[in-house]
Amino acid sequence: MSIILVGVNHKTAPVEIRERLAFNDEACLDGLRRLVDGNVVREGLIVSTCNRVEILSATTTEQMETGAGRLAQFLDAAGELPSGYLNKHLYRHTNEEAVRHLFRVASSLDSMVVGEPQVLGQVRRAYSVAVEAGTAGRVLNRLVHHTFRVAKRVRNETGIAANAVSISYMAVELGKKIFDSLKGCTVLLIGAGEMAELSARHLINAGASQVLVVNRTEETARQMADEFGATTVPFDQLDKALSEADVVICSTGAPTYVLTEQHARRALERRRNRPTCFIDISVPRNIDPAVGNVPNVFLFDIDDLESVISSNIREREREAERAELIVQSEVMQFQQSLRLMDVGPTIGALREKLHEVARSEMARQRKRLGVLSTEQEAAIEALLMSTVNKISHPILNQLRRFYETTESDAGLPSKDIFDLEE
Amino acid sequence: MRSLLATVLAAYLIAAIHSILAFINKRRSVQRVAEWATVAGFILHTGALVADWVIDGHYPLFFLRETLSFLAWALVAVYALVLYRYKAQAVGAFCMPLVCALTFAALLANTGPSDAPASFSATRLFPIHTTLLIFSYAAFFIVFMASVMYLLQERELKLKTFGAIFHRLPSLSAVTELANTAAAVGLTLFTLGIVTGMVWSWARYGRIWHNDPKEIFAFLTWLLYLVLMLYRLTANWRARRAAWLGVVGFALVLCTLFVARFLGGYHVFGLNFWFLSYVDHSCRS
Mean pLDDT, chain A, as a whole number? Predict the structure, then answer.
């Protein structure tokens, strides 16, 4: 059996093409049933996300070329594109390369943002659709389960998903670095903005217990407060709110500084010097940079966040190199297990054949032995079978080892030698 | 019991190497090896100390060799507590190499004449005095480590450039709490240690203060940690200055522990290091 993977991703095809190809679950189900014919394309699975559309399938080794052509045609048809139109965008991987590609995709090494967690869920979903369509067979089942294992290993053993790479998530990361856990922390939002809202949501998910909202227009503040179950604070009570807040996120449209060093000093005094994290995501800046000079105040403006993010991305890339090593070793393991899977039936058939020869010889000679007790009968049977097993054992082992170590599955004479039919 | 101590050193070395690797790689499996090696080393070390006690007939904390070994043992014990209570694995990467160094030095150092400690061990107070102090030094080392971790991270947060170490250290509040607890425990033990020493000295010599360098350093150390504690208690969380005190305090601890020996005086006894030939000159007086 051979594994083929054909598809496009964000690196090979522009969004205009990807969007034409995208499959929803139903289209997937439908497409798989049409594509998998049990002859050329034996098994199939479609991974469709906003960054990639890929078809994974299993064919017999002889029909690999035909199968790959069939998959490309299928994609052309799915995008309602002329035949061959996609060729310059498509990548095609077979066997080891296909396995490696799938492992990398699921481990989020091939993603736009390395380490993003969604893609594994998308592969999981693609698999469950394939199972529903009945197009995940012996090979793909094994491959996909191995893929999940690899993705889990990469996640656990490398820091590829550690460290925030989005502005909205930085607040959580900074909060954790300062307060250990955000449980019971108070968040203060000054001004309303999408980014501030998103940050607040992340903070709440991470355990922040109270959200305060200050806005010049009370209407907007109330609206936001309703969304989070937050408390609105009138603008003239900003000082009090500041003294309660562990994390302050500022994003007003004001052209000047809303928070000055004086604000920060007063707040810290009332907090008995407990540290605070000020995050200023507004441009022009709303928090006076001098606030950063106050002890136990950690101020980050939008540029600081960006630079931390880019260093985090570099850190992720370093971790990705380690992840590639894991993928490499897992690919080799999988290839070996696949070869063993191929050899399993052959060896089984061989052993069966030998037993059959022994049994038929026994049947021929049985008459000459006269009447035997059941025990004697069983003893002869056992003698025969164990002799056959003992003689064939080293040969079968040799055969198994041969399959394990040879790269290709061509040139195996066993079937012909023992006159086996498939 | 030298061969046993060498085995202990081997276990600690494994623990130290794996702690450092775990610190760099952030791998849980490596960390687990480090922890098991630490536990194994600690059990063996305890065995070695007990064996010393039984064989030599005196509490195994008198000569320099014993002091170094005992200090290493106390450090491991304190580190294990920190690990258990705070999950601050990063401490191991710095603590275990020191433990290795101490154990190694203990292996190199010689034991002095065996009649000297007998007169000290006669009273129970003396071993209690030394044990309390050794544990307080171990606690102060933890304060020092937590303080350094705090200062490093605080600096990076203020400068907004997060280096490789940054992501591998426990959070600011975690190291602050660790430093606070360790300082409180350390100060308590230190105070008790000094008091028992005074009582012992009163019983033996009829005076509690001998005006020797070690006592002066100890007094300064005690004062500094007292200030540190008061500071932490009153100006809750003004952690940076407290962290600096934690660093300076440890320098004083080192002076009390080692430098004072070279300055001579009443507390120099049981000293028999290969490059120092004067033994017990003052306590015979």
Answer: 86
Q: How many CB pairs under 8 A join A and B?
A: 59
**Which chain B residue has its CA at the smallest distance from A153's CA?**
B27
User: Three-state SS across chain A?
Assistant: CEEEEEEEECCCCCHHHHHHHCCCHHHHHHHHHHHCCCCCEEEEEEEECCCEEEEEEEECCCCHHHHHHHHHHHHHHHCCCCCCHHHHCCEEEEHHHHHHHHHHHHCCCCCCCCCCCHHHHHHHHHHHHHHHHCCCCHHHHHHHHHHHHHHHHHHHHCCCCCCCCCHHHHHHHHHHHHHCCCCCCEEEEECCCHHHHHHHHHHHHCCCCEEEEECCCHHHHHHHHHHHCCEEECHHHHHHHHHHCCEEEECCCCCCCCECHHHHHHHHHHCCCCCEEEEECCCCCCECHHHHHCCCEEEEEHHHHHHHHHHHHHHHHHHHHHHHHHHHHHHHHHHHHHHHHHHHHHHHHHHHHHHHHHHHHHHHHHHHHCCCCHHHHHHHHHHHHHHHHHHHHHHHHHHHHHHHHCCCCCCCCHHHHCCCCC
For residue A50, indicate whether it is catalytic.
Answer: yes
> Could B173 and A298 be called an inter-chain contact, meaning their C-beta atoms sit closer than 8 Å?
no
Q: Residue B240: which of A157, A174, A295 has the nearest Cβ?
A: A295
Q: Which residue of A has its CA nearest to B166?
A: A177
Distance from CA of A110 to the nearest CA of B (A): 22
A177/B236 touch (CB, cutoff 8 Å), yes or no: no
Kind and range of the H or E run holding B190: helix B172-205
Q: Is the pTM of this model over 0.80?
A: no
Residues of A with CB under 8 A from a CB of B: 156-157, 159, 162-163, 174, 176-180, 272-275, 292, 295-296, 298, 300, 304, 307-308, 311-312, 315
A chain contacts of residue B157, beta-carbon cutoff 8 Å:
174, 177-178, 298
Hey, are the CB atoms on B236 and A159 less than 8 Å from each other?
no
Task: Kindly provide the ipTM of the predicted complex, given to two decimals.
Answer: 0.78
pLDDT tens by residue, A120-150: 999 999 999 999 999 998 889 999 999 999 9
- Nearest partner of B223 among B252, B265, B189, B255, judged by Cα: B252
**Contacts B167 to A, Cβ<8 Å:** 159, 162-163, 315
Contacts of A319 in chain B (CB under 8 A): none
What domains lie within chain A, and their CATH numbers?
2-162 (3.30.460.30), 167-308 (3.40.50.720), 344-417 (no CATH)
Q: Which residue has the higher pLDDT, B115 or A19?
A: A19
pLDDT digits (tens, 9 = 90+) for A57-92: 998 888 888 889 999 999 988 888 888 888 889 999
Tell me whether residues B174 and A180 touch, CB distance under 8 A: yes
Q: How confident is the model at residue A415 (pLDDT cuts 50, 70, 90)?
A: low
Residues A320-347, mean pLDDT to the nearest whole number: 85
What is the number of alpha carbons within 13 Å of residue B279 lying toward its C-beta? 18
- Contact state of B167 with A159 under an 8 Å Cβ cutoff: yes
In percent, the amount of chain A with pLDDT more than 70 equals 95
CB contact under 8 A, A272 and B158: no
Contact list in B for residue A156 (CB cut-off 8 A) is 28
Give B282's pLDDT tier (boundaries 50, 70, 90).
very low
Strand A2-9 relative to strand A52-59, pairing: antiparallel
Q: Which of B173, B175, B178 to mutate to test the interface with A (most CBs of A within 10 A)?
A: B173
Identify whether the C-beta of residue B221 lies closer than 8 Å to the C-beta of residue B200. Answer: no
Confidence of residue B274 (pLDDT cuts 50, 70, 90): very low
For residue B235, the chain A residue with the least C-alpha distance is A272
